[in-house]
Amino acid sequence: MRWIVRIEQAVSTFLLPRGEYLRFNVDARLRAKTKDRYEAYAVAINNGFMSRDEARALEDMPPLPNGQGATYVQPLNMAQIGQQTAT
Q1: CA distance 52 to 64
Q2: Which of 8, 46, 53, 77 is the most exposed place for a label (fewest CB within 10 A)?
Q3: Are 64 and 71 in contact (CB under 8 A)?
Q4: CA distances from 35 to 40, 41, 51, 62, 87 (A)
C-alpha cells in the first residue's frame, strides 16, 4: 500500500494539473455490487450510525452543500438526532 500511495502522490504532483489528483481504486475487486453497497448505506443512514456525507465519501462524491449531509437521523421518525418531535 505504501508504494501505491507514493505513485499516486508522484503522478498527482508532477503529471496532473493543479487541483487534480490520481487515486487507485484498490478496493474495486473487493467491493460488493452497486445495489448491495447502496442497500448497506441505506441501512447505515437510516439507523443513525452513518451520515449521508460519510456514505458519499465512500463513493468518492463530494459532501452535500450547506452541511445537509452531515446530520444523523434516528430510525423512529427520521428526525435529526437531538431534536424533539411534536406529539
Answers
A1: 8
A2: 77
A3: no
A4: 9, 10, 19, 20, 36
Cβ distance 84 to 65 under 8 Å? no
Q: Is the pLDDT of residue 87 over 60?
A: no
Phi/psi region, residue 63 (left: phi>0; alpha: psi -120 to 50; beta: rest), is beta
Q: What is the pTM of this model?
A: 0.59
12-58 pLDDT tens trace: 999 999 889 888 877 666 677 888 889 999 999 988 889 999 999 98
Grid cell digits, residue 59: 463513493
Angstrom CA distances, 4 to 7, 22, 41, stand at: 5, 11, 27
